[in-house]
Specification:
218 residues, mainly alpha, 2 domains, two-stranded antiparallel sheet, 8 helices
């Protein structure tokens, strides 16, 4: 068996490249193939997701705000609800973070991509380039809290040392983010999985954000 110098995966003796990371196995010294999904492209995808999350959260708040205004006029809630509408609570922050984690978990675990990654032509897969799953997606999503520290410097430093551009969350989850054109057809998901992923991901944001704000205003 031939062991890959990069990812450590064992391959048959006649293999030309690693079945996990596509690194050539017979080069001396080995040549590591760096993926096209670099820090800037992935940061752009994350920025799109953050903007989407913020816009959706604002829309949810406006709907709840309008609902409480109508309820106050009807005498169903106290008229001082507007005083409680200002500022944020710890619960809102916690639920907001959890909503973002679940959004990325469902989207990347079921389809391999969030809205931001779809826009940037990216997909999350396992190190062997097979489709990701929910457990791996959750690990890399919750680990983003570490990788995002110091404006992403923690994740960037890890990606620089990895031919697969893996941040710490990717290493722990054994995942990688690749461009769509770097994937084999069998590693790509169906339209049905996209609909399910976005439904559960966006639904998580709607439910958790709504719970946080309603609890605050009641």
């Amino acid at each position: 068996m031939l062991k890959c110098d990069y990812c450590g995966r064992e391959n048959p003796d006649d293999a030309i490249q690693c079945s996990g990371c596509a690194n050539p196995l017979h080069d001396d010294p080995p040549v590591l193939k760096r993926t096209k999904a670099g820090f800037r492209l992935r940061a752009a995808a994350r920025a799109i997701d953050t903007l989407f999350n913020f816009t959706l959260t604002w829309f949810i708040y406006m709907v709840i705000d309008g609902g409480f205004a109508v309820a106050a006029k009807a005498g169903w809630v106290s008229t001082d609800w507007q005083q409680r509408a200002h500022g944020y609570t710890l619960l809102i922050y916690v639920l907001g973070i959890l909503a973002a984690v679940l959004y990325h978990t469902f989207c990347e675990g079921l389809h391999g991509a969030t809205i931001g990654k779809l826009c940037c032509g990216l997909c999350v897969v396992r190190e062997d380039r097979t489709p990701s799953n929910l457990s791996a997606a959750f690990i890399r999503s919750i680990s983003f809290l570490l990788d995002s520290l110091f404006l992403g410097a923690v994740g960037y430093s890890a990606m620089r040392k990895s031919p697969l551009n893996q941040r710490f969350g990717d290493r722990w989850a054994k995942t990688a983010v690749l461009k769509i054109d770097e994937l084999a057809p069998e590693s790509r998901r169906s339209t049905g999985s996209l609909v399910l992923a976005l439904g559960l991901g966006i639904g998580s944001i709607v439910v958790l954000v709504a719970v946080g704000w309603v609890q605050k205003l009641l």
